[in-house]
Every structure is written in structure tokens, then in C-alpha cells.
Design goal:
Structural Genomics Hypothetical 15.5 Kd Protein In mrcA-pckA Intergenic Region, Chain A, alpha+beta, Pseudouridine synthase, 9-stranded mixed β-sheet, single chain, 7 helices, about 20% helix
């Protein structure tokens, strides 16, 4: 027997009169994405005073809006054959250098059958820890789709419990490399700004309390130090003490130094050095360069490094070519991470 769809019925208050139907529903159902709401409207599952309506319809005070929300099919990590760069593996865990553009696991915005890191790991290793569920086998933590670098995956439940406990206790060391716009005024710093979903633009996070809505942001802490000033940019090392969504990106954007390539948080579409447009990255210049944690079985401290991916190295090479005498400074800054 199929699950019964959830049904919601709303009476539009006078204060919401004139709003577009899709925007009104987004304010009433914050857990549903705009894409999901638009699909429900197009499928005829949203009615206004008993009639189907378009997303752009303006609602009026006193109208009755009925929305039927059918349950989604359970998500599963479908096995898929994709080459993986394995940085470390044993019987308990695997550390992978995740490429940018690959989601870690299936989600609401992932098309059915889409390639994910979880699916690639299931294809290569078979059984992984079951504690994450069918959609997140072995997944203990995550990286943004557009972020590359080291991610640890549990191959059994013992390892999953141990690693999850270390992340919760904040004893896992997570070090990132980021190239940000502008020259940092200090050599190092600590960013402690709460982060929350931006209710005005739901694909973004924000540090601005006025965009939090009625909730409060989650405490977030990023330490950083400047590795080198590279023309109009600064190469920084960032250490995460919390793991909020888009944390590094939104924190540096709040300082007025968005990550190169991160147009969602204010970076220009085309980066320029000495009047020369640099190649389009097609991603953010953000890379999880180091990961350190205690082995779940032996307790030994493991330190794993993820080499900088070719597209980020190529961008730095183009930056060096556009800016005289910059190559030695780039090489010196990257040397500890090679």
C-alpha cells in the first residue's frame, strides 16, 4: 500500500495578499525547496479555492490554499563505476580525494541514478557501514559538491561510530586551502560568526542576523592564516572547528573576501590579474588539503594529505603567467601541501 500524501490547508491572511503563490508557499513550508514546490504546483497538487493555479498567480486574502505532498521514494546510493583517487585504505576506512562537481551522496536535488561518491564507493568496496542509511553508506561527514579534497568513509559500523564521535567532539583536524579575492589585512585571524539558511535566497547560507528569520544562526568557528599574497588574491589556509554548510565560503564572503569562483557568495564570474582575464574555473577554489583523526581500531593518529587537483594548479599557473615574478611565491606557498 502506498503511503498517503500529506495534506496541508492554509487560509491566506490579508498581510500576504498580492504575493506570488510559489513565494507564499515557500514562506509557509521552509523545509521544501522552491524547485520542489514548483513541481507540486505543476503537477496539480496545489489548489487555490479548489482550482489548480500557476506559480505566478497572486494570492488574495481569505483564499484557501490546499497542498498535497506525496512522499518521495527512498533515496539509495546507486553503485556506479567511477575512478577514485584513494589516499588511504584499510579494512576499517577509506580516505578519498573527492573531485569537485561530485555530490557526496544522493539528496533531494540529485537526479535519480546520478553519480555520487557514495555510489562509487559502493561499486568499488561493496558493503560499507550501514549506520548512514541506504542513501549514505559509510558517509561520516561531507564536502560541498563544488569542493574537492580529503573525505573519510567508514567501511564498518565500528569505524563509523568512532569517526562520528570524533567529529562530534571536534577532535578531527580539517585543513583547507582557499584562494580568496583581495589582500588580507592581517596575517591570520579567527572568524566566529553564526551561520544560518538565508531565508531570502534559500540556496545560500548567511551570517546576517536579519536574514535568519525567526531562528538563530548556529555557532561557527573558522581559523585562518594567509600563506601568500598573489597579485589581487590571497592564498589562505583555513581550519574548521565546526562543520556548517558552506562555512568557509560564507565566512570569507562576510569579510569581503569571497572565494575565487564562488559567484553564489559574491565572487565575480571572471577573475582578473594585471588586466588579464584568467581561465574560468567552473568551481570554487576551495580544497580540503589535510585531514587528521585517530584510527577507530588502533587509536593511532592518521594524517592524510590530498594533492591539489589539476584545475586549481592550472589556475595558479595562469595567475603566475599573468603576474611577473609570482611563480616562486606560489611554489613556496604550496610546498607544505604537496
Amino acid at each position: 500500500m502506498s503511503p498517503v500524501p500529506a495534506i496541508g490547508q492554509l487560509v491566506v491572511p490579508p498581510s500576504a495578499a498580492g504575493q506570488r503563490l510559489d513565494r507564499y508557499l515557500a514562506s509557509q513550508f521552509p523545509s521544501l525547496s522552491r524547485t520542489r514546490l514548483a513541481a507540486l504546483i505543476e503537477q496539480g497538487l496545489v489548489r487555490v479555492d479548489g482550482a489548480c493555479a500557476r506559480p505566478s498567480r497572486r494570492v488574495a486574502g481569505g483564499e484557501v490554499v490546499e497542498i498535497r505532498i506525496p512522499p518521495r521514494d527512498p533515496l539509495r546510493a546507486a553503485p556506479v563505476e567511477i575512478p577514485l583517487e584513494i589516499l588511504y585504505e584499510d579494512a576499517d576506512l577509506v580516505v578519498v580525494n573527492k573531485p569537485a562537481g561530485m555530490p557526496v551522496h544522493p539528496g533531494a536535488g540529485t537526479p535519480p541514478g546520478a553519480a555520487t561518491l557514495a555510489g562509487a564507493l559502493v561499486h568499488r568496496f561493496g558493503a560499507l557501514s550501514k549506520l548512514g542509511g541506504a542513501d549514505r553508506p559509510g558517509i561520516v561527514h561531507r564536502l560541498d559538491k563544488g569542493t574537492s579534497g580529503a573525505i573519510v568513509v567508514a567501511r564498518n559500523d565500528l569505524a563509523h561510530r568512532s569517526l562520528a564521535g570524533q567529529f562530534a567532539a571536534r577532535t578531527v583536524e580539517k585543513t583547507y586551502l582557499a584562494l580568496v579575492h583581495g589582500i588580507m589585512k592581517q596575517a591570520s585571524g579567527s572568524i566566529r560568526l553564526p551561520v544560518a539558511r538565508d531565508l531570502r535566497r534559500r540556496t545560500r547560507m548567511t551570517t546576517r542576523a536579519r536574514n535568519f528569520g525567526t531562528g538563530k544562526g548556529r555557532a561557527s568557528h573558522t581559523d585562518w592564516r594567509a600563506l601568500a599574497s598573489l597579485g589581487p588574491f590571497t592564498l589562505v589556509e583555513a581550519i574548521l572547528h565546526t562543520g556548517r554548510t558552506h562555512q568557509i565560503r560564507v565566512h570569507f564572503s562576510a569579510l569581503g573576501h569571497p572565494v575565487v569562483g564562488d559567484t553564489l557568495y559574491g565572487a565575480p564570474k571572471v577573475a582578473i590579474a594585471k588586466g588579464t582575464p584568467l581561465p574560468s574555473l567552473g568551481r570554487n577554489f576551495l580544497h580540503a588539503a589535510r585531514l587528521a583523526f585517530s584510527h577507530p581500531r588502533t587509536g593511532q593518529r592518521l594524517h592524510v594529505r590530498a594533492p591539489l587537483p589539476p584545475e586549481l594548479r592550472a589556475f595558479l599557473d595562469a595567475l603566475g603567467a599573468a603576474t611577473p615574478n609570482l611563480e616562486p611565491r606560489i611554489d613556496a606557498a604550496l610546498q607544505p601541501y604537496l
